[in-house]
Write a structure and sequence with these properties.
mainly beta, five-stranded antiparallel sheet, 3 helices, 47% strand, elongated
């Protein structure tokens, strides 16, 4: 299936959203997108076609706390595995994340803020009048959700692992909300993708426009 598609399917099935790939890649509201190998690529913006839109902030409390099947985490203190609920918050702590299957991921994004096109029907009618618009190929990013900070780890190979170290409270924050500033990696990473402490777009809502001016 591939790592990008697995992540995209998880967001689509659980939240009705589509994935930005790589996570954090800049995609603007009103971006014109194409699907290439299961990844949305920005090729233009509505403004490039002379189509203007209004926008608004999206409400709701949205966060991402997902990991693929085959991903597990273990917490150790004083050489022994401990349950997260029994972690000594001041003691030195090690976190091991195992990726036992191919194309697996771990993401923590505590809070996503979203913006959306507020006059989509007007935009759709304007797009329908464009002779150069490719109605089956072009998608519009009409909602964009971004995180101020997130953690994303992805492995395309099976039986990989990565270890982190910090205080008990630091490890708890890493596992629950993706706070990585006070956590140090203690092994050379064997995962393919490691994005920590950065922000940017993570999820989208997209639509195509029919020739009759209706979103679909």
């Amino acid at each position: 299936m591939g790592l990008p598609k697995k992540f995209d399917d998880r967001l689509k099935n659980n939240l009705g959203l589509r994935a930005v790939w790589l996570p954090g890649t800049q995609i603007d509201l009103g971006a014109v997108l194409q699907l290439k190998d299961g990844i949305f690529e920005s090729i233009a913006n509505l403004s490039d076609f002379g189509v203007n839109f209004r926008w608004r902030e999206l409400g709701g409390d949205l966060s991402l706390k997902f990991q693929a099947r085959g991903v597990s985490s273990m917490v150790f203190q004083a050489g022994a595995q401990v349950d997260l609920s029994h972690v000594d918050i001041k003691a030195n702590t090690e976190l091991k994340i195992d990726f036992k299957e191919e194309d697996t991921y771990f993401i923590r994004a505590p809070k996503l803020s979203g913006i959306g096109i507020s006059n989509l029907m007007t935009v759709a009618k304007a797009v329908a009048r464009l002779s150069e618009w490719q109605h089956r190929r072009y998608f519009i990013a009409w909602n964009v959700y971004r995180a101020g900070e997130f953690v994303f780890l992805g492995s395309q190979s099976k039986n990989k692992s990565v270890r982190f170290q910090g205080s008990g409270s630091d490890i708890i924050d890493f596992l629950t909300v993706g706070a990585s500033a006070n956590v140090a990696k203690v092994t050379a990473s064997s995962v393919n993708i490691e994005i920590m402490g950065k922000g940017g777009p993570l999820a989208l809502r997209v639509t195509r426009i029919k020739k009759n001016g209706r979103p679909f």
